[in-house]
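Task card 7
Instruction: Convert sequence to structure tokens.
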Amino acid sequence: MRSLLIPVALALVMPASLMAAQATSSPASPSASSTSASSAVDRASTDEVSVRLLTASRTVQPGQTLLLGLEQRISPHWHTYWRNPGDSGQPTSISWDLPAGAQASDIHWPAPQRFDVGPITNYGYENQTLLLTEVKLPASLTPGQTIQLKADATWLVCREECIPQQATLTLHLPVAAQAAASEDNTRLSAAKAALPAAAPFPVVAALQGKELIVQWPAAAGGANPTADKTLFLPQDWGRIQHAARPQLDQADGQWRLRMPVGEQPAQAGQTLEGLLLVGDRSWAVRTQVGGVGTADGPGRVEAGVPAPAVDGLSLGAALGLALVGGLILNLMPCVFPVLAIKALSFLHGKPAEHRRQGLAYTAGVLVAFGGLAAVLLVLRGAGASVGWGFQFHSPLFVLLLAWLMFVLGLSLAGLLELGAGITGLGQGLASRGGLAGSFLTGVLATVVATPCTAPFMGAAMAYALAQPAAQLVLVFMALGIGLALPYLALAFWPALQRCMPRPGRWMEVLKQGLAFPMFGAAIWLVWVVAQQAGPQGVLLALSGMGLIALAIWLRSVSRPAASVGRWTGSVAAAASVAAALALLPLMPDDASTSTPDAAQASAHGYEPYSPERLAELRAQGKPVFVNLTASWCITCLVNERVALSTAEVKDAFQAKGVIYLKGDWTRQDPRITELLTRHGRSGVPLYLYFPAGGGAGADDGAQVLPQILTPGIVTSALQGSAT
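Output:
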């Protein structure tokens, strides 16, 4: 419909409207207090719209980012249009003529209104609006010169009829060493502050039949929304049927808007951007569209919508699961060596000191988990889809952690003596003193725990990542308390300490022996870098380790020397470390080796996962086993070794005709993120078994296997007896 309305309207009214705009546009006399505009034509008017170009600065400085605004004062009963005008209309556009080197941003759009004209629905502005643009001025400007900013603005103004109009507006602004605010600065700044900000709570979207479902937590967004004042406005045209009133309902702690899809609906896996309007509040939304599902009665969305919370899971249950999951993390190969070394400090010192050490360690764990929660909230607010272990998607982070494990191994082996200020990062793990060391050990334990996923954690993390900030932080704190609890118990209960063997030479041997798990962790992390960044990433990782080892050797051999020799050795060691850090910007962002091709996958007995392949196999009625994994996930690698790669499981797959799909989440893959979210998980591993039968895209009947696998668990699932 829109494609027919716009050409007809333009053909009818374009000639007359352009003449009207030219006849009524006239320069405005500059005011005495606004010399920045001098003799420039900064405003124009027609019978329907008066426009003016506003600036936040009456003088500008080189390199400044200048805030400008196109003010539209619109006659009663008329309106102009938002970036997505709806069923008909045309958004306002601005073409800029700027000084050489200057760059203008896109228009920053305020939240629009909905206009219903018969069967047509539009989004736009009435009475008055202010469209903002930021212009980055070149640093080459010279104080004393005057620059010209010219805007060719075009807009469509409508009532029952529509009139296209345009005006050319110009500002002349003097350049000074320091910018000076204009009389419109306060107004422009307020308009910028009032722009829709990113939603501070999770908003998810999915296709369900011929409907687009948008949902968010019932506890978020302020007062309870009402159907007549709650809208989702897609940024792109055609995503929904604009004239159809969305249906609002609440279920399972979520508000849901149901909207019929339009002529160009977003597909599963695509990014959907728009505005969520609830009453007089508005938020910018950027989310990924989930897959196609089915409805089971009004107000209930099944697997087609990525569940923003685990069904039936309360905050109390999530806190309990997180606490237990944190306890189990202590047994993971990433964390146990750190805890074991730190526990040796209880063989020395007094109980009061032990309690302080325990509290410092716990504080380090909780601060680290709080930092992870804060980063997740920031990324979620920016529209990113993230989960547990998100930082391991970055090869740069993995590289730095590999170097840290290497340094810890050298320290535990007695080849490196770290200063007292960082005792908790190496040899000082076994020291009885140093609260800073205990605090940093807690931080380290959290960092090395993140590639591991313990039982009970999946549901708790999925719940947390779908909740507002307060609930998310509470769940992360419960996970941190669980991780810190064993050490805290040892610190406060001397009876537990008496179960430990007496001090002796075995302590030094154990400490040196635990260096080798650290070296093993470093080797494994370099292998992860190889999956993410290819041979160049491995070269950088090993080169950095060589430079770090050189720095340690230089510092060691120069220590007994005279003052000049010690100073020379310290400078050379610092230069070697600086050379290692200089390698970091060379780390590739991506590599073709990160995802195996079909031939490589077939050689290993599986196919690469894709939503399309899964839907195809389900349509054919074939049984499918899906393994979502990552190279940095230790739990995943252990499960593949002890269960999925065994002859027992391979024979069972072959006997049942099971197609084995493997999804690699080593680098962020939105298709895998969507499947994880759909099944209430925030991270890998996730194991799904789809029995024979079903239909295209059907998730009903999928069995979710435990996060810790044995061959028996897998074969039982194939027989239909897994729970």
